[in-house]
Amino acid sequence: MSEIPKLKAQIVSWFNISGFQIRSEASVFLAEQIVSLAEPTRKQWLQNIAGHVQGQNLDLPVVEKKHIELAIKEANNTGLEDNETIFSVINAYDVPRFRFNEEKKKFLPDSGKRGFLPGPDAKAEYIRERYLTLWQKTSRHEMFNTSKVSMQDVKRLTLRKIELLLSTSKMKEVVVLGLLTQLTEGKFYLEDPTGVVPIDLSETVFSSGLFCEGCFVLASGTYSDGTLKIDELGFPVTEPASSSRAFYGTVNTWGGRSKTLLKYSKNLTELERNSGGDSIVFLADCWLDNSIVMKKLTQLLVGYNSFPPRAIVLMGPFSKSNDNPYHLKERFQALGEILASYDSLKRETDIVLVPSCEDPTIANILPRPPLPQYLTADLKRSYPRLVLATNPCRLQYCTQQIVVCRSDLVTKLCRNTIHFPKSGQLADHFARTLISQGTLAPLHPIACPIHWNYDAALTLYPLPDLIVIGDTCQGFQTTEQSCTVLNTGSFPKSNFGFKVYIPTSRVVEDSQIPDDHGGQ
Fold it and tell me: What pTM does this model have?
């Protein structure tokens, strides 16, 4: 770092020539960002940064650190439109909400006001919107769409509403899409917006997936004497994201500042294709109050300082004991002191913090707000590229869409399923459940409470490119309908394993911190 004073003097001289006075803090910061670059590249960067500072139209010719940070960000995005970003984090409360218009057969933006204390109709409304989303894609499938011409010999089925069953005494070959629920203890029913019917599951054959109360299911059977005897029980059909997006148009369904969906950006497509070894790191159970976890986390940061990833996503809980939030503030401060010494990471990598239900914030309900700023203020000062995210949150990398959720969701689905699969891999059953349901919360509200007005933040329709779950069970990854579903597992409980996503190749790599001492 002996070059820093010399480089700082060059930066001051460069900005003086451009008619600016640069603060000492700002010049040191800029020097730290470009010191590792070759001499010709440094001059090019200084010229670019100075140009972006001039474009900020400052009230006074005095350059602060915040002006340099903004100029560096703009320089990194050179060649992109104003609304295009290489990487961004979209919090749950900023996710746009859409409603399916049955007359127009398309999804329209819902600009209504949202809050945390909705009226009693909000609960029925979000469940109804989930149903309509699943109904429209299921009814379009070639098994049910009689107007669809197919070269194959496909048996056509008729998707019926429950009110039709209730208007008759007997009906064979019934196929119903409904919500699996218990209106009385031990007795299951199917419910849709038109009615409720009791069901008999005594001889049912279950398809793949984890069937829980609160899931929407496709039931096939015979209706007689007021009961639907189900022969086969499956999930709603799945479809690729490209088919789903056709019913939204080019409007931005993902979130962020762009009015149009960045999936269609030619600039970002080109950048993504040439991004080389860019990566995003995911790990859960980042216990900052555990000395061994902190040691392993430090090893991870030391390793990545040599080849910085685009982002490191740290998921909670951030304390193993959860005894005193003020102790956690000290641990975040300690993390900041560690990160402050890694110049390459500070220059190129975002650290994203995603809270768990055990971290200090509101009650156990999704979506959860970010970690309180009073806990992370010292960390933010040491590491300006810190991002406090909600749980769940959305990431956008060039044209790719990533959902991140820190929840023991695999465990919850296994605990609440009415039929545990006897064959197949758990990862495949879990992915099938999420993708077919189109939500991160396919459970009864008691098992997985959510804010009714923010159910859109949990939606997985249209499908993203990657779904990241931070469950403490064993890590896994699988793919369905071109959507990769991965579980990070627990960082400390998996012998310090974590996941690395390579956007260019869309590959998930299993990584692990070497165990130098034979275990914890």
Answer: 0.85
